[in-house]
Design a protein that fits this description.
Elements lengths: L2 H9 L9 E2 L5 E2 L33 H7 L5 E4 L5 E5 L5 E6 L12 H5 L1 E5 L14 E2 L13 H5 L1 E2 L6
Antiparallel strand pairs: 1-2, 3-4, 4-5, 5-6, 6-7, 6-8
């Protein structure tokens, strides 16, 4: 990164907060990542005017604080069987999904994330709809996770550690 740009980001309060640079897709781009290797159609933004996510990381964030910072033009809808909620942005893209804790013993669940509750965070450039193809999932720090990553499921199902609202 150019020295002057880093200084400018620090003045704006955006420098040194996480790995990578807050990119044009409203998410963190890892060093070496660009729009060209994210698999976007024609290497173009699907939703160029998408509202950025209100947080740069989900570490230490409670549901109450996330709800307080949610953009006004995003809708909150329940998941099927009211197991949690989904935030849909102005383009109909699912940006955040919260699944409530099941309350079961973590050893009896498929993974402990189901017993404790989990979040799934998506990029502003994901495709709207039910199909998983074309969706760009993020890890807890807001980095795009490749589907070929061997820890894809563990990285994109972010365990919720805060209090239930």
């Amino acid at each position: 990164m150019v020295k002057g740009r880093l200084r400018r980001l620090k003045r704006q309060g955006r420098g040194g907060f996480a790995r990578g640079v807050f990119g044009p897709i409203g998410d963190l781009l890892r060093p070496g990542q660009s729009l060209h290797n994210l698999g976007l159609p024609g290497n173009r933004l699907r939703h160029p005017g998408a509202t950025p996510f209100p947080a740069r990381s989900l570490r230490g964030r409670s549901i109450r604080s996330l709800r307080r910072d949610r953009p006004a033009n995003w809708r909150e809808v329940p998941t099927r069987d009211n197991e949690g909620f989904i935030w849909l942005d102005e383009n109909g893209v699912e940006r955040l999904r919260f699944m409530r804790p099941t309350g079961e013993n973590p050893a009896n669940s498929q993974w402990s994330r189901q017993a404790n509750g989990y979040l799934r965070w998506q990029s502003s450039q994901s495709t709207p709809g039910m199909a998983d193809e074309g969706k760009l999932f993020l890890d807890v720090d807001g980095n795009v996770v490749s589907r070929t990553d061997p820890n894809f499921a563990e990285s994109t199902h972010i365990m919720y550690e805060g209090p239930w609202p």
